[in-house]
Design a protein that fits this description.
Elements (H helix, E strand, L loop, with lengths): L2 H33 L23 H8 L9 H12 L5 E7 L7 H11 L1 E6 L2 E9 L5 E11 L3 E7 L1 H14 L5 E11 L2 E10 L19 H10 L4 E5 L6 H11 L4 E5 L2 H4 L4 H7 L4 E5 L14 H12 L6 E6 L17 E6 L3 E2 L1 H9 L12 E2 L1 H6 E2 L4 E2 L13
Parallel strand pairs: 6-9, 8-11, 8-12, 9-10, 10-11
Antiparallel strand pairs: 1-5, 2-3, 3-4, 4-5, 6-7, 13-14, 15-16
Length: 412
């Protein structure tokens, strides 16, 4: 063998040694950087192939072992689940639920639901991670489902995996956690050159102190729920609440608003705004499928013969919403219907006129008992408004400062 051949062979050998050394060093680097993650770090590769490190452990198995340390907010693991399932030619689905803080159910309940179907790999009073392992046709174990849940002010649960399993998990969550009804109420607060100005409030059932049938014993032919059902089914759009202040009209009105199913909820309770000619502009701006509560409407519904120009606009508005599924609940402190415009209460335009009264004798304690208040000494002749009955302090034999019932407004 000549010297040239020897040199060539030597060079080839050196190159081979260099390649092997580079591969060994790179393998050690990959092993340290990708698989040997530490608490609080993220997976540094989204490679989803079954790559073996120098210990012979597949990437998926190593990932499962180190998932405790993966930042739950990272998208890397979600990408891994998605890509792995894609490689196995199975579809992947994700969904989530936000459970408000006032829902009936606890974070421990959520943990129990997750534990029924998945392996919880980490949990504390505010955080849960869970996996489900599967095995491919070639015997390779991989993670095919991931669940993460956290509790701050509200609770949030997210899942990724098979669509049927995700839906089953979310159905179990929906069944266990009763989420209270809520509505967004737009309240008229003024007018500007650009149109009516409103504020927005979210009213959640359970947080708003709403009406009970026991507050109104003189309504003998219906319950509140029966009234709501009949009112929604009626072609008449106006419902009038009439009676002295403190008899619970505001509470009743707000309860109806929460129970009636509508797209838009609006409230107008400032007399000066109701008297403004632009009030009907506000009504028309609400569109279809709305429920509108109007309080302190004493002047708004007085007869046109007394100079009430607004009444004509209200009547025209009501006549124009017949086909638009809009309801208007009007509350007034006027003592009798004789002081209202007779056209307003015409059959077909007004569903009903409800007259609110004071409570007498044991009616007072029945109303108090619904809210868990202790009974007070009364006789058959004792007379109180609902506001007085609920705010009476038996310890000092006096009325406390009258508290608001319902959402916003005052006891009217």
């Amino acid at each position: 063998m000549d010297s040239v051949s020897v040199i060539v062979l030597a060079l080839i050998g050196l190159v081979a040694v260099a390649i092997v050394a580079f591969a060994w060093i790179r393998g050690r680097s990959v092993s340290n950087n990708v698989y040997q993650t530490q608490p609080g770090t993220q997976i540094q590769s989204s490679n989803t192939d079954f790559v073996f490190d120098d210990s012979g452990m597949p990437f998926s198995k190593r990932l499962i072992n180190t998932i405790h340390y993966i930042d739950p907010d990272t998208s890397r693991f979600v990408e891994y689940i998605w890509a792995t399932r894609y490689g196995l030619e199975v579809s992947t689905f994700s969904d989530s639920r936000k459970i408000p803080h006032n829902a009936k159910g606890t974070f421990k309940d959520m943990q129990e639901i997750i534990k029924e179907h998945f392996e919880i790999i980490y949990s504390n009073p505010r955080f849960i991670r869970a996996l489900r392992h599967a095995e491919s046709a070639c015997g390779e174990e991989y993670a095919d489902f991931y669940v993460v849940a956290e509790k701050n002010e509200d609770m949030l649960i997210s899942a990724i995996g098979d669509e049927r399993d995700v839906n089953a998990l979310m159905a179990a969550i929906d069944k266990r956690f009763t989420i209270p009804a809520s509505i967004e109420v737009k309240t008229l607060v003024g007018y500007s050159d650009s149109g009516p100005a409103t504020s927005s409030d979210i009213v959640i059932e359970g947080e708003a102190a709403l009406a009970f049938d026991e507050f109104y014993p003189y309504f003998k032919d219906f319950t509140i729920d029966e009234l709501v059902e009949a009112y929604q089914a009626s072609s008449a759009d106006a419902l009038i609440l009439i009676g002295p202040r403190g008899t619970g009209k505001s509470t009743f009105l707000r309860t109806l608003m929460l129970k009636i199913k509508a797209k838009i909820y609006a409230l107008a309770d400032q007399e000066s705004l109701l008297a403004d000619p632009r009030f009907t502009t506000f009504l028309r701006s609400l569109g279809n499928n709305a429920v509108i509560g109007i309080e302190d409407a004493d002047n708004l519904i007085k007869p046109r013969s007394s100079g009430n120009a607004q009444m004509s606009m209200i009547l025209n508005y009501l006549d124009g919403v017949v086909d638009h599924n809009t309801k208007m609940i009007i509350s007034t402190n006027l003592p009798t219907l004789r002081e209202t415009d007779e056209a307003l209460v015409r059959k077909g335009r007004t569903f009903r006129v409800l007259e609110f009264q004071s409570l007498y004798g044991e009616q007072i304690n029945v109303a108090r008992g619904v809210l868990g208040k202790e009974p007070i000494d009364v006789s058959d002749e004792t007379k109180m408004t609902l506001a007085e009955a609920l705010n009476y302090d038996p310890d000092d034999n006096s009325l406390r400062t009258v508290q608001t019932i319902g959402f916003g407004g005052s006891n009217r």
